[in-house]
Design brief:
heterodimer; A: mainly beta; 4-stranded antiparallel β-sheet; 11 strands; 0% helix; globular; B: 54% strand
């Protein structure tokens, strides 16, 4: 299994540009989520999904959109990039069936710079 | 508000010594806590977890202690090795179960 796969690994954008960060998992996990990690800070939850067609906001959702059309994929869209969105983005997933350990499986991250 | 925080941003230990990383939480309703390890350039990886009905849980070279009275948990690493050098995060899975909230992290340096 590949686990959680994120693309691209690095991206540079200009202010105002839009882009989509891709995330895919092959573990048949119902739950998927996006975090951002800024220097000296922990991971902050942006959006999450508990299944296809279901999404919800996390701690810092403004400026980001998500959708969940399949179990495997959970893309994160930046509508109009701002320098404050310069960060490392992580996608994470887990199963949510009863009895499962609630540990998250993380991708390797996307480093985004907005100039 | 609800938060998960760490007491120290960095910790430096000698190889072979034991390491203790601390974490405080503020939500009395928190019932599940997880420790993650993040190596440079990688995503966090699960180390060990503990539920609020337990005070202690042991894994391979790691032990997590939970003190619900003072809302504190700690991660103990026995015989710390250079490969343990990383950032360690405590995380809280809030009641309701879909938002895992992370603390700021502690960077562990292991001196040879």
């Amino acid at each position: 299994n590949a686990g959680v796969t994120q693309t691209p690994k690095f991206q540079v954008l200009k202010t105002g540009q839009s882009m989509t960060l891709q995330c895919a998992q092959d573990m048949n996990h119902e739950y998927m989520s996006w975090y951002r990690q800024d220097p000296g800070m922990g991971l902050r939850l942006i959006h999450y999904s508990v299944g296809a067609g279901i999404t919800d906001q996390g701690e810092v959702p403004n400026g980001y959109n998500v959708s969940r059309s399949t179990t495997e994929d959970f893309p994160l869209r930046l509508l109009s990039a701002a320098p404050s969105q310069t960060s490392v983005y992580f996608c994470a997933s887990r199963g949510i069936r009863q009895g499962l350990n609630e540990k998250l499986f993380f991708g390797s991250g996307t480093q985004l710079s907005v100039l | 508000g609800e938060s998960v925080g760490l007491h120290l941003p960095t910790l430096s230990v000698q190889e072979g010594d034991n390491s203790i990383i601390n974490c405080a939480y503020s939500n009395s309703a928190s019932d599940y806590f997880i420790w993650y390890k993040q190596e440079s350039g990688k995503g966090p990886q699960f180390i060990i977890d503990i539920r609020s009905n337990m005070d202690k849980r042991q894994g391979q070279r790691v032990t997590v202690l939970l003190n619900k009275t003072v809302k504190h948990l700690s991660l103990q690493i026995a015989a710390t090795q250079p490969g343990d050098s990383a950032v360690y995060f405590c995380a809280e899975l809030q009641t309701g179960g879909f938002k895992t909230i992370f603390g700021a992290g502690t960077r562990l340096f292991v001196k040879a």
